[in-house]
Specification:
This protein has 254 residues and is α/β, with parallel strands linked by helices. The chain has nine helices and eleven strands.
């Protein structure tokens, strides 16, 4: 944990991790730290009897995520993984576009600046929001192959993942990161009834973090059914499992 002076932010006194864990006044923890620290912080707050909202990915391990959900259940606490990418206008547009259409093949390319793997995990984990899009649009996927090209001296990497839907339709997911690469998303989906090439301008994403926090509050108030919670947990665990399988596949090819 980064040590710094604890001052005031907008007249609210900051407190230490130790004080947050022990305070009876703290009932909920929002974890917005480096991905590599998520698992430890979630465990500490759940064990201290706090509800938890955590940025994706919840953990860098499928087994750890399962274990933490079991712990949350034992403690009677809500563990919520934030997924603002599912609240974006772009995703809402895509969801409407793919409904009722039969996919033939598709691809999703994401580019951005460098990201430290030690802090944010293997690219399949740090880029799990793209994987979540694909799973949410086309259902559970299986891994066919994956490659990772790295030039660490240039801070460059390119991960190419070949996936398959349950109907054996190919999906390609590419994460490319390096200096000078702009944050951008390129997609191409081909259906029996036509094609969707790249994303039109569908408007500004408004208050997506607040919307996600509202979902968390609804869970705290018991306004989500067991069926809804189970479906969400299944999707999150499937994406974490896929990310781990991709990492294993790439490591085996080194």
């Amino acid at each position: 944990m980064q040590r710094r002076e604890l001052g005031n932010i907008e007249e609210v006194q900051q407190i230490s991790l130790e004080d947050a864990l022990s305070s009876q006044e703290v009932e909920v923890a929002f974890i917005c730290s480096e991905s590599s620290s998520h698992e430890d912080y979630i465990r500490q707050f759940l064990n201290a009897g706090k509800h938890v909202l955590v940025e994706y990915p919840m953990t860098l391990s499928w087994a750890a995520a399962q274990d933490l959900w079991k712990l949350a259940e034992q403690k009677g606490k809500v563990l919520h993984e934030e997924h603002v990418e599912l609240l974006m206008e772009e995703f809402a547009f895509l969801k409407k576009e793919v409904v009722g259409k039969e996919l033939l093949k598709g691809s999703l390319l994401f580019t951005a600046g460098p990201l430290e793997e030690e802090r944010f995990g293997f690219p399949a984990f740090s880029g799990i929001s793209r994987l979540t899009w694909l799973v949410s649009l086309f259902g559970e996927l299986s891994l066919v192959s994956a490659t990772l090209e790295e030039r660490k001296e240039d801070q460059y990497m390119k991960m190419t993942v070949c996936l398959e839907t349950e109907n054996k339709c190919p999906l390609t997911w590419i994460e490319e990161k390096g200096p000078g690469l702009k944050r951008n998303r390129h997609l191409s989906f081909h259906f029996k009834s036509g094609s969707l090439e790249n994303m039109p301008n569908v408007g500004v994403n408004k208050n997506i973090f607040l919307k996600d926090q509202n979902i968390f509050v609804q869970k705290l108030l018991g306004q989500f059914s067991e069926k809804e919670l189970a479906a969400e947990q299944k999707r999150i665990l499937h994406c974490l499992w896929l990310a781990e399988e991709i990492q294993k596949y790439c490591s085996s090819k080194k």
